[in-house]
Amino acid sequence: SCTMSLSEAEVQSARGAWEKIYVDAEDNGTAVLVRMFTEHPDTKSYFTHFKGMDSAEEMKQSDQVRGHGKKVFSAINDMVQHLDNSEAFLGILTPLGKKHASQLKIDPKNFRIICDIILQLMEEKFGGDCKASFEKVTNEICTHLNNIYKEEGW
């Protein structure tokens, strides 16, 4: 229904930026979640098995946090592979959005939080150009997720 607003050049630079952080998918995915749970403790309430963890160190060591971090990065990686094909992109994002909206009841603002933290991490590790190249992708993801949530009655 919606087309992606990225040019071919933007798709290429976004992929280049993403590849840098995806090389260490598990560590970087974990770092993103740990930062989210630490800076936004209310987000932990959605994860019953993370609830009791208070220290960042404890979270970093947790197989469940690491596993979910990797899962998040894998899902984004699938989307990044399809930035030039909105049908395929939405084919990945739509079921994910529906599941988070209807089954998991995750507040959609948390997607913006996690995307912003990914951008922060990119900037810290690889500089502002890297972050800027990926910003449009996170905006696409969040925009489409918000639309999916609306359709799900949020």
From TrEMBL:
PROSITE patterns: GLOBIN. Residues 5-150 form the Globin domain. It catalyses: Fe(III)-heme b-[protein] + nitric oxide + H2O = Fe(II)-heme b-[protein] + nitrite + 2 H(+); Fe(II)-heme b-[protein] + nitric oxide + O2 = Fe(III)-heme b-[protein] + nitrate; H2O2 + AH2 = A + 2 H2O; 2 superoxide + 2 H(+) = H2O2 + O2. GO terms for molecular function: heme binding; iron ion binding; oxygen binding; oxygen carrier activity; superoxide dismutase activity. Keywords: Heme, Iron, Metal-binding, Oxygen transport, Transport. InterPro entries: Globin, Globin-like_sf, Globin/Proto, Globin_lamprey/hagfish. Its EC number is 1.15.1.1. PANTHER family: CYTOGLOBIN, GLOBIN FAMILY PROFILE DOMAIN-CONTAINING PROTEIN. Involved in oxygen transport from the lung to the various peripheral tissues. Belongs to the globin family. This is superoxide dismutase. The gene is Cygb1.
